[in-house]
Amino acid sequence: MPNKSIYNSYVQRDAAVIWHPFTQHQIEPFSIPITRGEGCWLYGENEEKYLDAISSWWVNIHGHGHPYMAQKIYEQALKIEQVIFAGFTHEPAITLSERLLGHLPKHFQKVFFSDNGSTAVEVGIKMALQFFHNQGNTKKRKILALQDAYHGDTFGAMSLGAPSSFNAPFQDMLFEVEFITQPNNPEACIEDMKSKLASAPDEYAAFIFEPLVQGAGGMLMYEASTLDTLIQLAHQHGLLCIADEIMTGFGRTGKWFAMDYLQEKPDIVCLSKGLTGGMMAMGVTCCSNELFDSFLSNDRKKTLFHSHSFTANPLACAAANASLDLMEKEETWVNIERIMLEHKLWADSQRNHPILHNIRQQGTILALDLQVGEATGYMHPLRDIAYQYFIKKGILLRPLGNTLYILAPYCIKNEELNLIYQALEAFAEELRITY
Predict the structure, then answer these.
(1) How does it associate, per the subunit comment (predicted)?
(2) Residue 309, burial from CB neighbour count under 10 angstroms (0-12, 13-18, 19+)
(3) Mean pLDDT in the chain?
(4) Is 151 labelled a binding residue?
(5) Is 244 marked as a binding-site residue?
(6) Helical pair 314-327 and 67-77, crossing angle rounded to 10 deg
């Protein structure tokens, strides 16, 4: 055991035993201990506080420490906290599935449970590929994805992400995926897809996309009409379409799901993050009865062989049901509309800013690029400077290189939004003077 007289603080104890995600421990500062959260605020070891402007990696859509959600998880824990989901079921999972499907387009009729966004995507890809395999079609193995895509960090999900620092060490080990031109260039994107489909019309199985907003790729936003055309092309060539709504789901884009802006609908949708309001880890992948029925057979080898120990964990299901209770309240949608309006007003006021460029908005998601030269991208050196600047101001923002974004909990107040806006303006002014 470590000597407590040496490891006498959270920071030291953490540094001695923990390897953090997306962290280069050689050059990044020690992790900040957090002891509690309330609403939009995180509180540190000495009661210092941080405004959580990114919902702690986009998950806490209702804020931290929500008493209603905590109570529902507690009530479920007194009944059953975990049960194997192969051969057994339970009411929280059934209710959650019924309610989710009630908010999705009508052709979604089945829910498959997993544990996070990456695995929800893995399941979606396995569904699509095995759909054709179960029918004896072994040619359809290729997948189409968007340039600058990010779908997670497991091997299948990494394959679907555009080549980047995230997957560079494993690039030669990933399966074959074709990437089409970024959809904020609609004409080039559509022509690129047409060309790829024409070159191998019988080889593509699926088209996967983040609808309307490509998150980790830089909060890149594009039009619903472009995606409608891409889905229509995919369907015309017999591809299954997979919507990765892990970030965009549950009100983030101003509607329940980003697909609600579309005329053409996907065949499979992957959900996580806001699904449980940040209280528990869970992912789901939803599909049609037609796709589900393609796995029905007397041949057990046609089963979808995917699971994990905590599939449909009752506590996570209780958290998701509680989150849906809050999502279905009028108050939540009033807050979403209010945040959208505040973002728009501030964005309009900064349109000609010399540093804050390409200010863009989709629903409650606001993003911009810091323009201080020609360089851009995830590895931009401004990332660390910006992160530390806002932390010192008591605001948690996590830049994507030189891209800053706000994905705050829906309970954020206007005065709290103004703290973020003012800090952005002050940081930009310092950059203007420096550069």
Answers:
(1) Homodimer.
(2) exposed
(3) 95
(4) no
(5) yes
(6) 150
Confidence bin at 209 (pLDDT 50/70/90):
very high
Residue 273 assigned as binding residue? yes
The residue type found at 379 is M
Residue 413 labelled as part of a binding site? no
Residue 300 is labelled as binding a ligand: no
Rounded CA gap, 179 and 164, in Å?
A: 13
* Residue 5 pLDDT grade (very low, low, confident, very high; cuts 50, 70, 90): very low
Looking at the predicted structure, is the pLDDT value of residue 369 above 70? Answer: yes
Q: What is the predicted pLDDT for the residue at 8?
A: 54
* DSSP, res 78: T
Whether the per-residue pLDDT at 375 is higher than 80: the answer is no
**Residue 118 annotated as binding site:** yes
Collapsed DSSP state (helix, strand, coil) of residue 161: coil
Give Cβ neighbours of residue 299 (< 8 Å, ≥ 6 apart).
none
CA-CA distances (angstroms) from residue 189 to 163, 196, 234, 405, 432? Answer: 18, 11, 13, 25, 35
High-pLDDT (> 90) share of the chain, %: 91
Q: What is the DSSP letter of 400?
A: B
Query: Does the annotation place 307 within a ligand binding site?
Result: yes
Per the structure block, which two tokens stand in for 368? 């911009």
Q: Does 309 carry a binding-site annotation?
A: yes
The pLDDT tens digits for 307-362 are 999 999 999 999 999 999 999 999 999 999 999 999 999 999 999 999 999 999 99
Question: What is the b/e burial string over 9-18, where b = at least 16 CB atoms within 10 angstroms of the residue's CB?
Answer: ebeeeeeeee
Retrieve residue 414's tokens.
């206007």
